[in-house]
Write a structure and sequence with these properties.
This protein is an alpha/beta fold. It contains 7 helices and 5 strands; from the N terminus they run βαβααβαβαβαα. It starts with a strand and ends with a helix. The mean pLDDT is about 90.
């Protein structure tokens, strides 16, 4: 079974995007689509990294655990809110921390906003950062508008049928890229 890590990138108090991370984890587990863990950046309490992990003289255990979780994942889902047209500094911090761990890693993006545009302005800048370090950003997205009305605090969708239909296509695309990468590595 494939290992999928979900990065919940917001560290703000009262964040709503974590609801989507919980939903995705529940969906993947309920449909037996992989071994899933959430990397919640709000619980990591990372410093602002001044250098890539490989150049840090004595990295702490939490940083090493984060790097291992990214390395060991067959695929990653990043759940990010949009803050003023960009993604959170907490996410940029951990993207820039690693390099080889992201290389050719299939990554799916879920953008979240409290407004009607579903975080659409953050996609380009996040994709570009991930492409620059060699990640395989999949073409499917899972944008979530009006997140406070769309998901409850436990990650349950208010309208399950269309939400499950949209997420099924999103996850199907991620799994296809994970399997394609695995075949490439074997061949």
């Amino acid at each position: 079974m494939k290992n999928i890590s979900i990065i919940s990138s917001s560290i703000r108090l009262g964040r709503k995007s974590h609801r989507v991370a919980l939903f995705l984890k529940n969906y993947l587990e309920e449909n037996n689509l992989g071994n899933v863990n959430i990397i919640d950046l709000a619980t990591c309490n990372f410093p602002i990294f001044e250098e890539r992990l490989r150049l840090i003289p004595e990295p702490n255990q939490e940083t090493l655990a984060f790097a291992a979780a990214v390395s060991e994942a067959d695929g990653i889902i990043i759940v990010t809110p949009e803050y003023n047209g960009g993604y959170p500094a907490s996410l940029k911090n951990v993207i820039d921390l690693l390099y080889a761990e992201w290389k050719r890693k299939p990554i799916a993006i879920s953008t979240v906003s409290e407004g009607a545009f579903a975080g659409s302005q953050v996609i380009t800048s996040l994709q570009f950062s991930l492409w620059k370090i060699g990640a395989l950003v999949i073409p499917a997205m899972f944008p979530v508008a009006t997140v406070d009305k769309t998901f409850d605090e436990k990650g349950q969708p208010t309208d399950p049928e269309p939400t499950n239909k949209r997420v099924a296509n999103f996850i199907k695309e991620l799994i296809w890229w994970m399997e394609a990468k695995a075949k490439q590595e074997l061949g």
